Structure formats: structure tokens, C-alpha cells
Amino acid sequence: MAWKHVISLPPRKFCMIASDCKVMITVFWDSKEILLIDYLEHSRTITGTYYTDLIGKCRVAQKEKRRGKL
């Protein structure tokens, strides 16, 4: 229910369409450029072990792109 004036039209309802093409992306960057872009697999959630592995991948990418800066 919604509050409205007696003579005003009822609120319009919009149809919600489920999208099947959603993608979760994790991006790590520093002050100069993007270090790592990770695409999460369909129907998978971020857990502690997944995030730990992702941080390890980011560390490796940082070493490759920023040699001598660590």
C-alpha cells in the first residue's frame, strides 16, 4: 500500500525481469595501473579460502608488474 491523494492515480508497478548474465568482478589496482582483474565463476560465492587465493594472485601480479617496488 502507498499513501496517495484520493483523486491521484495509483502508483505504477514495474515488471522485474531476472537477469542471467550477471558477473562479479574483483579488481585490484595501485596508483599507476590495474594489477589484477578476477572474474568469479557463475553461481560461486566468495569464501575465505577463495579470497586468500585471490590475495595471493594479487601479490604475484604486483611482483610481476612492479619489480623492485616492493
Main features:
two-stranded antiparallel ribbon; single chain; 1 helix; 70 residues; alpha+beta
Explain this structure:
With 70 residues, this protein is α+β, with helices and mostly antiparallel strands. The protein has one helix at residues 48-65, and strands spanning 25-29, 34-39. It has a two-stranded antiparallel ribbon with strand order 1-2. The relative contact order is 0.14.
In short:
The chain is α+β, with helices and mostly antiparallel strands and 70 residues long. 26% of the residues lie in helices and 16% in strands. The protein has a two-stranded antiparallel sheet with strand order 1-2.
Q: What would you call the structural class?
A: alpha+beta
Sheet-strand content, in percent, reads 15-25%
Number of strands: 2
In order across it, which strands form the biggest sheet?
1-2
Distance between the termini: 58 Å
Question: Assembly type of the shown chains?
Answer: single chain
Average pLDDT level: 84
The rounded Rg comes to 22 Å
| Biggest sheet overview | 2 strands, antiparallel
SSE topology string = EEH
Secondary-structure map:
Layout: E1 25-29, E2 34-39, H1 48-65
Antiparallel strand pairs: 1-2
